[in-house]
Each structure stands twice: as structure tokens, then as C-alpha cells.
């Protein structure tokens, strides 16, 4: 079985293989995409960001989360360096947990038009209460292996 010809042209990318600093804020961040090397084949792509950081918009104190992003690509994949820089842009950005988590999902959907996407935002406690935020773009398509996110809930000292 021969593999289809896959484009490896990265000339249109502005971040890959180049020095790039963190954007000042998520809106200024560039999310780049590359062609899906297996269009028409349903498979799940997972990105995990166990050290995601943003700022509380009320106190300016840091908030930390473990993000898990799963998606079934359509014609496009997110270029991983641009995703890393996009997520890093939240470090100095004040927003509530819900705004960050759902906003990341909506931005990825707008840029990639995936067949399906979900995000789990497992936020570490502030004020003694963890706030976990979950979003998905619809029902997961049948016949695709989508692993459980398996991020344990916060148990405190119990």
C-alpha cells in the first residue's frame, strides 16, 4: 500500500523553524495550521498542557490548569509550536477559567474547522474550590477511538 503524497511545504508558516517570542495576549497570538496528511480518515489528535497559566481578572493572581484538547481533524491540523505560543499568551492575560477554556476551543474550531473537538480544563483550586470546565463541539463521531482524559479530580488531602 502506498501512502498518498503529503505536502511538507512549510514556506507559508511564520513560526515553525524560526525564533519566536510569546505573544502579549491570546488575541495577538498566531495559530497556524498545516494540511491533514490523512484527509478522510477519522482519528483523534490530543494535546496536553499540564502547566497552563492565566491570571485571575479580579486579583491578578496566577491560575493554573491541566488542559487536555482532543480533536478529530478535517482538512487541517494545528501546528504545535503555534499552539504552544498561543497557550503561553494566556500567562499575562486576565480571564476567568470558563473564558479561557471555552475561548481556546472556539479559537481552534474557527481556525481548523475540525470534525469534532473537546477540551477539559482541570483547574487547580483557588480559595479552596477547583473549577473544572469542559466543552465539546457536539457528539463524538462513531468509530473513532477517543481515549478518556483520565485527569483525576482534585482530592485535597483525602
UniProtKB/TrEMBL annotation:
Pathway assignment reads: tRNA modification; tRNA-queuosine biosynthesis
The membrane-spanning stretches of this chain are none
Renumbered to this chain, region (Disordered) spans 1-22
Q: Which reaction does it catalyse?
A: 7-aminomethyl-7-carbaguanine + 2 NADP(+) = 7-cyano-7-carbaguanine + 2 NADPH + 3 H(+)
Q: What is its main location?
A: cytoplasm
Keyword Oxidoreductase carried by entry: yes
Polar residues bias (residue ranges)? 1-13
* Subcellular location(s) of the protein: Cytoplasm
Q: Which top EC class is named for this enzyme in its record?
A: oxidoreductase
The family database entries (InterPro entries) matched by this protein are listed as: GTP-CH-I_C/QueF, NADPH_dep_7-cyano-7-deazaG_red, QueF, QueF_type1
Q: Which UniProt keywords apply?
A: Cytoplasm, NADP, Oxidoreductase, Queuosine biosynthesis
Query: Which Gene3D superfamilies does the annotation name?
Result: 3.30.1130.10
Q: Which SUPFAM superfamilies match?
A: Tetrahydrobiopterin biosynthesis enzymes-like (SSF55620)
EC code: 1.7.1.13
**Binding annotation for substrate:** 78-80, 97-98
Q: Which GO terms describe its molecular function?
A: preQ1 synthase activity
Q: What does this protein do?
A: Catalyzes the NADPH-dependent reduction of 7-cyano-7-deazaguanine (preQ0) to 7-aminomethyl-7-deazaguanine (preQ1).
Family to which this protein belongs: Belongs to the GTP cyclohydrolase I family. QueF type 1 subfamily.
Q: What name does UniProt use for this protein?
A: NADPH-dependent 7-cyano-7-deazaguanine reductase
